[in-house]
Each structure stands twice: as structure tokens, then as C-alpha cells.
């Protein structure tokens, strides 16, 4: 079994967070652009969904977040 750190990863086109390869994406990994169904649905929206706060951009020199909790 491989460890998650050894799997390929990409940056989500909507939220900007990194996400790792999943088995269900094995056939079309090259076309995967979004980390989740929620980000895929928000791709064309100019306004975030009601109740969802917009993602703040980090200050220059700030340490970037590398994973979700």
C-alpha cells in the first residue's frame, strides 16, 4: 500500500488547496481540476453559496496551509 505523501497531487482550481490522487480518479486524473463536488459546483459562480464565507487570501510571507482538518 502506498502512503498518501507518495501519491500525485494537484491544486484545486476553485479553493486553491492541494488534493491527492484517489482511486476513483485513476482513469481521468489528467482531467480532474476540483478537490470536491462542492468546488466543482462553485466553479462558475461569481458569488459564493449563501452561508459560505469567501476564502481569504493569505498575507504576503504567511505560511500556506497544506492540508484540511
Number of strands: 2
Largest sheet: 2 strands, antiparallel
Helix content: under 10%
Which class best fits the helix and strand makeup? little secondary structure
Describe what this molecule looks like in 3D:
With 69 residues, this protein is mostly loops. It has a domain at 4-42. Helix content is 9%, strand content 9%. It contains 1 helix and 2 strands; from the N terminus they run E-E-H. Strands 1-2 form a two-stranded antiparallel sheet. A hairpin with a 6-residue loop joins strand 1 (9-11) and strand 2 (18-20). The two termini are 23 Å apart. The model has no long low-confidence stretch (mean pLDDT 78).
Give structural attributes.
69 residues, little secondary structure, two-stranded antiparallel sheet, 1 helix
Short recap of the structure:
The chain has 69 residues and is mostly loops. The protein has 1 helix and 2 strands.
What order do the helices and strands come in, and which of them pair?
Blueprint: E1 9-11, E2 18-20, H1 37-42
Antiparallel strand pairs: 1-2
InterPro entries: UCP037205
Protein name: DUF2256 domain-containing protein
Pfam family, one: DUF2256
